Amino acid sequence: MTASRVLVLNSGSSSVKYQLLDMADSRRLAVGLVERIGEETSRLVHEPLTGPGAAGGKRERVGAIGDHEAALRAVAKELDADGLGLDSPELAAVGHRVVHGGTRFTRPTVIDDEVLAEIRSLIPLAPLHNPANVTGIEVARSLRADLPQVAVFDTAFHSTMPEYVARYAIDAATADKYSIRRYGFHGTSHAYVSRATAELLGRPVEDVNVIVLHLGNGASASAVRGGVCVETSMGLTPLEGLVMGTRSGDLDPAVIFHLARVGGLSVDEIDSLLNKKSGLLGMCGDNDMREVLRRAGEGDEAAATAFAAYVHRLKKYIGAYSAVLGRVDAVAFTAGVGENAHQVREAAVDGLAELGLALDLEANAARSSEPRLISTEYARVAVAVVPTDEELEIAAQTYALVTQ
């Protein structure tokens, strides 16, 4: 029996998202989530998608789950109940989402002690994410020490950006000393969607130039030339770029100095303001695009202004990346907002006919979970909605590495 299953783990500070996939046919076998780890009200939701357990649908349990080890042991128990346990000989590897790979990790990497130590050393670049990623790796290794564990990095897809794009225009010695450069994030999504867009167009990925707009609570844009990222909107951290749910995106750095000198805010207070209390939330009090659209539709001025700012920034990046690529074959919308908010897509493309973009409004408004074109027949640039699948991308990269 050939081992073809991959368990994908996305470990957050108080949560673990997981999927078990069979890469023989890219089929999901089970999905689930453990949240509020460390609290009395921890919650595990598990859904088997194959085998005898699938008939019962989702299973949910609420109760204290003390730490990530307890969480992963609980996940293993649920999988085992469905005949999909971690001890299965069909399990080929565990793929871990790791947010920051710095300049060291530019491709999927089998994890050993040295690699784990290097991921730990990158914690200062991603203090909210890499510690949880490390914990998930450590626990998974303790549960199956014999099994290949693979790190797939959010930053890796963007490591192909030219040096003049990745560099900030600051003192080079200072930048090198503190690893200050543009890394980019959401890389697994941008990789998957750019490739899926080429497939939707029926063309080789090497021949297609795509602007990918990953629009969720966190949002980023990328310019992808022939399957290779040449520019992305996020930078040293996920704060740079588009207006997001709670993040400001692009900002005059002097705002930070002003808040410190005039407002008397501490570094931590400014960090919290820009990352957690800005964006749509800061402008109108809601970071859920559905609420922003509802309120704007009812004449709420703050919500309308927030929506206009969100769309204006999108247009700027579409225009800028059109210039970077020179020739654009497609603009692809993805992630929660990009896939579901037809008003955002319509507003972002409106007025860009000179760049070759024109929407079929009826196709744009129609809901579907399938990849699809929403541009008019005569549009020079295709506009697509491509549901992202970061877990499948992580599983595919993991499986390809361990079966080489």
Explain the overall architecture:
The structure is a single chain. This protein has 404 residues and is α/β, with parallel strands linked by helices. The protein is 38% helix and 19% strand. Helix 11 packs across helix 13. It is globular and about 55 Å long.
Q: What's the overall average pLDDT, rounded?
A: 93
* Beta-strand content: 15-25%
Uncertain segments are none
Span between N and C termini?
17 Å
Supply Rg: 22 Å
- Kindly state the percentage of residues in helix: 25-40%
Q: Could you give the order of the helices and strands? A: EEEEEHEEHHEHHHEEEHHHHHEHHHEEH
What is the topology?
Blueprint (H helix, E strand, L loop, with lengths): L4 E7 L4 E7 L4 E9 L7 E6 L10 E4 L5 H14 L9 E8 L10 E2 L2 H9 L8 H14 L5 E5 L9 H4 L5 H6 L9 H15 L7 E7 L3 E7 L2 E5 L21 H8 L5 H10 L2 H6 L4 H9 L3 H25 L4 E5 H6 L1 H8 L11 H5 L6 E2 L8 E4 L4 H13 L2
Parallel strand pairs: 1-6, 6-8, 9-12, 12-14
Antiparallel strand pairs: 1-2, 2-3, 3-4, 4-5, 7-8, 9-10, 10-11, 13-14
